[in-house]
Each structure stands twice: as C-alpha cells, then as structure tokens.
Amino acid sequence: MGDQVKLSADGADLEYPVLKGSVGPEVIDIRKLYGQTGKFTFDPGFTSTASCESALTYIDGGEGVLLHRGYPIGQLAESSSFMEVSYLLLNGELPSQDELSNFEYTISRHTMIHEQLRHFYQGFRRDAHPMAIMCGIVGALSAFYHDSTDITDPEQRKIASHRLIAKMPTIAAAAYKYSVGQPMLYPDNNLSYTGNFLRMTFGVPAEEYEVIPAVEKAMDRIFILHADHEQNASTSTVRLAGSSGANPFACIAAGIACLWGPAHGGANEACLNMLREIGTPDRIPHYIERAKDKNDPFRLMGFGHRVYKNYDPRATVMQSTVREVFEALNVQDPLFETAMRLEEIALNDPYFIEKKLFPNVDFYSGVVLSAIGFPTDMFTVLFALARTVGWVAQWNEMISDPGQRIGRPRQLYTGPTQRDYVPLSQR
Ligand code: ACO
C-alpha cells in the first residue's frame, strides 16, 4: 500500500491515498471524502486542486520549468517546429521524418473552410473584436462537420482535431481580413503552416506575397510557446465543456471565450496597451506605484502567474524573438526599451520580489507581434490559434480515458434557506 494521509473528521480517523505522478507534487485522492464525511473541500480558483490526470505538459513554477511530453520548452522553441510540437502533443512522441511529413500533409489538406462558413463573417460588424468572431465561427464549425462529431469514435476525434488545427489559421486570418475590409485569401498548401497563415493574413490577391523566412520562423516559435500549458483556465474550460460529451468544435469555442479574458490570453493585448499608455521609461515609477496600490485596480499586465513563481521560460524565448524580428525587419520600437526597463525596475522592487511576480509569456509577445504587423486586437487570436493544439490534445486525452466522468464541482451554499413563496400581491 502506498502513502496515506490521515484526516480526523467528527471523531473518526480517515485515510486517503497519496497518488504520485512521474514528477511534481503528490496529490491526495479525496474522491471518497464526501461519501465518508458528508463534507466537501473548498478551493475556489483551484489553488490546491488537481482537476485531472494528464501526461501532456509539466510545469515546475518554482524553477521556471515547462516540459511538453518531457521536452523542455526552450529546446522545442530552439530546434523544433510548431507542426512537430503539435504531433508531439497529440501523439506523445516526436515524429520520424515520415510521420512528420504525413502529419504536415494531412493538416495542409484540411486548411480550407466550408464556403458557406465564409458567409458567416458578413453577419459581424466590421469593428467586431476578432475574438468575438473566433468564438462564433469556431462554434459554428459544429454545424458543418457532422462527420467528425461522434466523440466515441477515435477516428472521428482524430479528424476533428486535425480540422481544428488546420482551419484555425484560415479562420483567424479571415477574421483579420474582414476587419480591415480586404478580401479573404484561400490557403496555399505549398507553404508551411505558419507561412500560409502569414500569407492569408498579410497577402492581397493583387500581389505575390513573399514570406520572410525570419518572420516565419519567429511566428512559428511564438506558436510553439503558446501550444499548451497544463490545466490553465481555457484548457480547463475545454475539458469541462467536453466532459459533458459536447462536440469538439463547441468545446474549443468555449476555450476561446475563456482565453479572451485579460487575466488569461487577453493579457498580451492589455500588456501592449499598457506599454503604450506608459510610453516612455520616465513614466514607469508612477505605474509601478499604481500596480502596488491596493486601492487601484491597475496591475502590471504581462506580470505574475498562478503557477510560475520564477521567470516564465516562455518570456525568455519571447524576449530574444523580439530582437530577431527587429533585426530581420530592420525596425525598432521604443516600447521594447520601455518594456525592458519596466521589467528591470519591477524585478528590483520589494513588492514584486516578495510576491514572486515575474514577466510571463505575454509581457514581450505584444511588442514582437506588433512589429510583425498584427493589430493589438489580433494578439489573443494568435494565442487561440496556437493553443488549439493543446486544447484538442487535452480534450482527446480526457475523452480517451475510460474513467472519464462529467466535471461537476460542488459549492459552499450561502444563500437563503428554504422559505415559502409569497404571492406578488402580498410583497
Ligand atoms: N501587478 C501587480 N500586482 C500583482 C500582479 C500584477 N500583475 N499579479 C499579482 N499581483 C499581486 C496581487 O495583487 C496579490 O497581492 P496580495 O497577495 O497582496 O493580494 C498577489 O500578487 C497574488 O496575486 P493573485 O491575483 O492572487 O494571483 P493569481 O494566481 O490569482 O493570479 C494572474 C495570477 C491572474 C496571472 C495575476 O498575476 C495577474 O492578474 N497578472 C496580470 C495579467 C496577466 O499578465 N495575465 C497573463 C497570465 S499568463 C497567461 O494567461 C498566458
């Protein structure tokens, strides 16, 4: 018998098994607690709760470590490609050359969206936030691909996963094109996954679009950095939505909705807006004071993380990617200097040191995406595009688990106790 944790409740001594993962904190299996004690645990925000078992991604927040299927994010960002990382997340192992070529071919054959789906865009206002469009269009995929919504069929799950990964760049680029009033471009499957996305976003039918290799590489790396991140809010949303048996397209639309929030994926947009508001380094101290003021809702966007109590390893890669893109495009952005100075000041401030607040992946991503040419409101869309891989991999893992049950949290009820209805005339 493995380790047990003892709990005394109402005079009775109860024992709960301790489960060990391959690495990371052990977990106390309290599944029998309610049945034995009639009591729930209380953990809003899931600060001490493992919501599932997973073999995909591991984070050691104290050490600033992020592993996908065991491989450090720094190595993947340096040497791999987004397609290879996608294969790894979906299948558990790095692909052979043949496996990678087949996977890339399969994904490239699913890049087109149903012609009727293109008309959906016309229903949105031109100034609609592209994340609003993403929620709608991705949810609408459920209405177009009925042949891959039977979640009990592994083959259909696989096809749905490939469709989502393949169509996301097309859908995201079309959302951008709609907002700027340019014609949507059809995918070009001769290009790489990322090259095709750049072309669909920045190309126009009147001209040949030339993909700049350095930008393509940087963009691909940014996708790798966002591919998966354990049980974050949007991934947990996808899992919870999927736990009811909802189809994958609906589940990913739910994930997109959750990602949109400024405490999550929306932080990259909020961070660049913040840097613009700060403007020059001399104004930083004022904003640092605001971030520390409990009576001021202002927070340093792109700073702090529920899990990382050390430098987010993705932020390190992102910072060097900024330099690469600036060099390739021969541009400079004074906001990068402001961001670096802000980081330096914050990392030397007792408030941020004590609370272990470090830059997260979003701190530098806005600067680099802006240099590539994306408007601010597209930033979170790019995050959604990349995270789709993680979402579908996590969703598949959950659905494949024979012990999978609907996610159904309980609560600490604080409302009125039972009382009798009072007719309107007597109120
Ligand atoms: N600026 C100033 N203070 C902060 C910040 C910040 N960015 N982040 C956390 N704090 C403070 C809080 O005020 C709190 O102080 P207290 O203990 O005195 O009350 C303490 O640090 C802990 O913060 P919580 O909000 O309790 O931490 P939580 O784990 O719930 O939130 C979160 C994490 C949402 C990321 C938070 O740090 C934040 O809002 N950061 C800014 C938004 C952001 O960058 N989000 C992106 C996250 S990464 C991603 O989704 C890709």
From TrEMBL:
The keyword Transferase applies. The keyword Transferase applies. It catalyses: oxaloacetate + acetyl-CoA + H2O = citrate + CoA + H(+). Keywords: Acyltransferase, Transferase, Tricarboxylic acid cycle. CDD domains: EcCS_like. It comes from the Bacteria. GO terms for molecular function: citrate synthase activity. Pathway: Carbohydrate metabolism; tricarboxylic acid cycle; isocitrate from oxaloacetate: step 1/2. Belongs to the citrate synthase family. This is Citrate synthase. It comes from Novosphingobium mangrovi (ex Hu et al. 2023).
